[in-house]
Amino acid sequence: MHVSEGVLAFPAIAAGWTGTTAIAVASLRAVEGKDLPKMAVLTAVFFVASLIHIPFGPTSVHLTLNGLVGVVIGIGAYPAILLGLALQAVLFQHGGLTVLGINGVLMGLPALAAYGIFRLGDGAAHRNKTALFGFLAGAAATALTGLLLALLLTTTGKAFLPVAKLALFAHLPLMVVEGLVTAAAVSFLARVKPEMLPGTHASREV
Amino acid sequence: MESVIDQSGSKKSAIHRMDGRLKLLGLGCFICATAVLRSLPALAAAFAAAWCWVLLARLPLGPVLRRTGMAALFLGSFFLILPFSHPLGANAGLKQAAAIVLKGVAMIVTIFPMFHTAPFHVSIKALERLKLSPKLVTLSLLTYRYAATYQDQLRTVRTSMTSRGFHPGANLRTLGILGDLIGSLLIRSFEQTERIYQAMRSRGYGESFGVVHEFQPLQSSDWSKFGSMIILSGALVGLDLSL
Predict the structure, then answer these.
(1) N or C: which end of chain B has fewer CB within 10 A?
(2) How much is the ipTM here?
(3) Exposure of A62 by Cβ count < 10 A (0-12 exposed, 13-18 middle, 19+ buried)?
């Protein structure tokens, strides 16, 4: 979930851009030029996958997959997510341009956290353990996004307190959905192409 | 997806003819000015100005209204919350909700004249000239290109899934199948990347990506359009401060 244009006051927008610029610059420095085509292809897949809607009760939810982006792309996940958000703003008018900075933080930081969580299960020889860490990475990324969003909304003004609670509450089912999809995708990758995952046995041998 | 931007780029209007760099700078400035506004009259003026850009660009109104309508509907939900939650009462809450809708819609609408009046690669080239990181430029161009490809692939896979009787629902099975679907899309694309990279290297790809587009020297008409965008942005902020 991301913040829409028009809601935030200027200081929050400026702080978002400062944070995003710092993290994106550091993260891009860690990316080599020869890795860009691979990163672009993965970013494109994630961008397209985020257009998938799942029916959910009377409404439908769409996947954000920021946990899976973190797991598969690693440190470069931050600019990848930022670009995904920019494309969504320009092509579909989701989110917006001035809130791109803050949305980058809301979605990108949890992706980096998911990468860290998945690495904790490094060398998970057992398939169930890989799936478990995939679930944790996906669920934690969504939970962190929800927490950051709620925190941001409460600092925006007292009037936004119910909105913050609503956002936090809405992230609970999303957390489970993202966790399960990430677990399924990660165990699929571990079975079929383990070198795409960081820290698995196969990727260290290659 | 490509068609959304690139079809509207073929029309000729005052905004289409404007130099890409000055267009992004001028309208970007307008969006930033709108972001700092607080008073309702100034926001209403910004809202009207944003639609003037769309009319000037002679963009098809149907898609613009549809897309903006979705955003407005979402922002409009603040009318149901803020009047009840605002510490200064319902009136203050209504005013704040109105400010959010006017501001949000004005900024979102401006994206159309900004980015939907030139082919995507031209806008990226303009951003490159405005000092966007070369790595991000390369990443944007390649991602945009592949997003279109994978959207087609996803459509194909979904058709075949539906024809085998798959109905998405809120259940574990759906989530597992979607996970596998995303995993297989990832693997398919990952295997392509190596070949793509080699093909690019053999055509002379270094570590940045050249776009074959040269901007014409800036005309006085570009400067006058840019000037009016800046003056309007300044006037909006001035109006806001004076109220």
Answers:
(1) C
(2) 0.88
(3) middle
Considering the domain boundaries, does residue B222 fall inside one?
A: yes
Quote the domain boundaries for residue B177.
134-202
Amino acid at A19: G
The predicted-structure confidence for A94-117, as pLDDT tens digits, reads as follows 888 999 999 999 999 999 999 999
B63 and B163 co-located in one domain: no
| DSSP structural state of residue A157 | -
Q: Which domain holds residue A76?
A: 10-201
Return the H-helix or E-strand segment holding A59: strand A59-62
In this structure, the answer to whether residues B114 and B233 fall within a common structural domain is yes
Here the contacts of B196-203 (C-beta below 8 Å, separation 24 or greater) are: B196/A37, B196/A41, B197/A34, B197/A37, B197/A38, B200/A37
List the single residue in B with minimal CA-CA distance to A80: B139
Q: What is the pTM of this model?
A: 0.90
CA angle B212, B218, B221 (to 5 degrees): 125
A-chain CB neighbours of B133 within 8 Å are: 25, 28
Which residues in B lie closer than 8 A to residue A184 (C-beta atoms)?
175-180, 183
Name which of B116, B122, B182 to mutate to probe chain A: the one with the most chain A Cβ atoms within 10 A of its Cβ: B182
Reported as type and span, the H/E element at residue A60 is strand A59-62
Into how many domains does chain B fold? Answer: 2
Residues A103 and A8 sit within 8 Å (Cβ to Cβ): no
* For B175, nearest residue in chain A (alpha carbons): A181
Residue B126 forms part of a structural domain: no
pLDDT digits (tens, 9 = 90+) for B195-238: 777 787 788 776 666 666 778 888 889 999 999 999 999 999 99
| Residue owning tokens 């006085």 | B220
Q: What is the rounded distance in angstroms from the CA atom of residue A155 to the CA atom of residue A7?
A: 12
Chain B nearest C-alpha distance from A189 (Å): 6
Cβ–Cβ below 8 Å for B154 and A91? no
Name residue, tokens 């009377």: A58
d(CA B26, CA B20): 10
Contact state of B146 with A4 under an 8 Å Cβ cutoff: no
What is the count of structural domains for chain A? 1
Pairing of strands A53-56, A59-62: antiparallel
Q: What is the C-alpha to C-alpha distance for residues B226 and B115, in angstroms, rounded to an integer?
A: 16
CB spacing of B103 vs A159 below 8 angstroms: no
Rounded CA separation A16/A103 (Å): 8
CB contact under 8 A, A182 and B179: yes
Measure in Å the smallest separation between the Cα of B214 and chain A Cα atoms: 23
